[in-house]
Amino acid sequence: MATDATTHTHTRTETDSLGSMEIPGHAYWGIHTARALENFPVAKRPISVYPDLVTALAMVKQASARANADIGVLDPAKADLIDRAAQRVIDGDFHDQFVVGVIQGGAGTSTNMNANEVITNIALELAGRERGDYAFLSPIDDTNRSQSTNDVYPTAVKIGLSLTLRSLLDELANLRQSFLDKAVEFHDVLKVGRTQLQDAVPMTLGQEFHGFATTLGEDYNRLRENAFLMYEINMGATAIGTGITTHPGYAAAVLHHLREITGLDLATADDLVESTSDTGAFMSFSASLKRNAVKLSKICNDLRLLSSGPQAGLGEINLPARQAGSSIMPGKVNPVIPEVVNQVAFSVVGADMTVTMAVEAGQLQLNAFEPVIAHSIFQSLTWMRQAMWTLRVNCVEGITANRDRLGAMVGASVGVITALTPYIGYAAAAALAKTALMTGRNVADLVVEAGLMSRDEVTKQLSPARLSGLQTITAAIPVIAPEDAPVPPVG
After folding, report:
1. Which of 21, 68, 96, 390 stands 20 to 30 A from 36 (CA)?
2. Of these residues, 307, 326, 347, 463, which one is catalytic?
3. 152-401 has which CATH code?
4. Ramachandran region of residue 435, left (φ > 0), alpha (ψ -120 to 50) or beta?
5. Element (H, E) at 205
6. What is the DSSP letter of 473?
7. Domain 12-145 superfamily per CATH
8. What's the pTM?
9. What sequence ranges are listed for the domain Fumarase C C-terminal (predicted)?
10. pLDDT in tens, the chain (491 residues)
11. How many CB atoms lie within 10 A of CB 256?
């Protein structure tokens, strides 16, 4: 041990093939991590911002230690130390020691070595040894036994993404349920539906919110289906898929332990050479996230439109007031929660393009750009999960309907005449619609005055249940030929 004159902290000397460096005495990471910190001051975000990735790395190291002990290539006492050290990381300890940047060259080697060094030094302390005593337990010869970055890193990324996806799916299910609850609350609130931003036909606000819930349910299913893409791993492939330096029984042994540790239905790829070079599964997984993000953004666009105003816009619903909306306009409140979700969606779309380009850029037996693939997808998952939470808690749960305004809009809407076309004919309906628009008069009154239907018949057909399709028409409808339909005068 030496003392750093600047920081007055103890340091230790570590050596690799490039030379020696002084490592802070308090650090569990070592020289390979130190070089990465010098070489990649890019994102300024350590891999520990994705706790599930750190946990997954520890799971891979733990499974490898057990597998190596099973097949007899690692001393059982050393394997036990590595196993126990990895468990500490899985339990959430030492995550702050995973310090290499999320963006790095080397196809993830720095991340793998960061894990090797941290777990080794935890194990050394468990054995009563000093950190850096690699003659007793080596990060490479022992903790990384039978492994390469090229099978450890993609396997850990897939496991980490699977763990993070679980929490996102939980939040997505909660958000879907929140929309379903609003659908029930608004089941009897009639409104004007719109196509191409123009008035169309009536519906209920409950139907609109039920549609939001349904589309989120579809995304839930698609994301679960794509989760299985992450279950094919290439442990045992080592450098390029040929399994060089590994025992013939290692791949099966490490798979057994990884399945037990993670609880995931993992499987070893049939072709390890192909699996080591191909990152297409990440592209498909990212695409399913993009789909979810785009559809969620569309819902947020609708919420902003429906709540626009409150006086000069649609003003159909009220979003919870979360904060003052302007530094100059008193009383202004903006739809800040849907807006932040929109921005998350834009980021996810961009991240998906990054993943696509990184997958395409792979060369020969390895894709060197897996770090940016991992970072992009982990960020998308993390941001989406948090966006869903804030949308549910800070927005959807507090939405209210402007029932009086909605009722007035439906009453004045010429769109309701569509429900009467089977009875009075299209030509008559079109003429009456034009009259209603020109005069501002109620459609039902015009139909009755024209002698086309009785008041009772009009009231029945324009009931909320009929207009929204909640109650279907079961009786036969008389067909009116265009030439027989009476056409009332316009004006």
Report:
1. 68
2. 326
3. 1.20.200.10
4. alpha
5. helix 205-227
6. -
7. Fumarase/aspartase (N-terminal domain) (1.10.275.10)
8. 0.86
9. 417-467
10. 444 444 446 999 989 889 999 999 999 999 999 999 998 889 889 999 999 999 999 999 999 999 999 999 999 999 999 999 999 999 999 999 999 999 999 899 999 999 999 999 999 999 999 999 999 999 999 999 999 999 999 999 999 999 999 999 999 999 999 999 999 999 989 888 888 988 877 888 999 999 999 999 999 999 998 889 999 999 999 999 999 999 999 999 999 999 999 999 999 999 999 888 899 999 999 999 999 999 999 999 999 999 998 888 889 999 998 777 666 776 677 888 999 999 999 999 999 999 999 999 999 988 899 999 999 999 999 999 999 999 999 999 999 999 989 888 877 777 777 778 888 888 888 888 888 888 878 888 888 888 888 888 888 877 766 776 666 554 444 444 445 544 455 44
11. 15
Domain ranges in the chain? 12-145, 152-401, 413-467
What b-and-e string marks burial along 1-20, b requiring 16 or more CB atoms within 10 Å of the CB? Answer: eeeeeeeeeebbebeeeeee
Helices (H) and strands (E) in the chain, counts: 17, 9
Domain 413-467 has CATH 3.30.1450: no
User: At which residue do the structure tokens 């628009």 appear?
Assistant: 437
Residue 198 gets the label, from left (phi > 0), alpha (psi -120 to 50) or beta, of beta
Positions of E strands within 336-476? 400-401
